Known about the structure:
The chain has 11 helices and 8 strands. It has an 8-stranded parallel β-sheet with strand order 7-6-5-4-3-2-1-8. The model has no long low-confidence stretch (mean pLDDT 97). The chain is α/β, with parallel strands linked by helices. The chain has one domain (4-254): TIM Barrel, CATH 3.20.20.70. The two termini are 15 Å apart. The structure holds 1,3-dihydroxyacetonephosphate.
Amino acid sequence: MRKKIVAGNWKMNLTLDEGHQLVAGIVKNLPELNSDRQVVIAPPFINIQHTFYQVEDTPNIFIGAQNCHSEDEGAYTGEISAAMLKNAGAEYVIIGHSERREYFNETDALLAKKTDRALDNGLKVIFCCGESLDVRDAGTQNEFVEAQLKAGLFHLHKHQLVNVVIAYEPIWAIGTGRTASAQQAQDMHAHIRKVVAEQYGQAPADNMTILYGGSCKPSNAAELFACADVDGGLIGGASLKAADFTGIIDAMIKA
Ligand code: 13P
């Protein structure tokens, strides 16, 4: 059964106190979620355990991390392992966000290793893909995203896919206020599902949750989530305000 998910990626925003207030506001107003509807909150590493304690008694709301290291442990000063995240209460980890690919030079090969470490340690992966404006303008976005998935994800075995969510985040729509149209999102999501089906078969593709990310907000969430292949959103800016995030969760519940 394909799940619908709204995940909030706080990026490098909010102190522990600010995060506490935000999560308190989200939990207070959270409508009841069936098991096929999930909310994920991905705060900075330092908030993870605290945020976990805030939500652990609320069904179907989970904690995500925004990154993890590609090795299990060792002399990697300043880094955080998948096992540490799991032990602190994380259920998900975002891998391959365009900001990490661009600012931290994360390559497809590294992301494939991170994906393995995360899954090995019992985390679920939200694997991000998405093209730049140049690629979109050249009309080669389908091939570009397909190559990202092949390089970062398609070494996995079929049985591992139940623990993978794909997030399509066109770079030109992230933090720009310029959302992909519902048709653009649907077209890419359908393409991603087709590519997954070609690699793994129709059933894993049909069960795959594919999220849209990029300037998603309460005013456009319903239209995006109404698309047949859009199963929710990965939310940046609008996840930092309880009312906005709750509005997007409402749209996901009604979709
Ligand atoms: P915005 O919602 O701020 O555009 O960010 C999207 C994103 O990058 C989520 O990971």
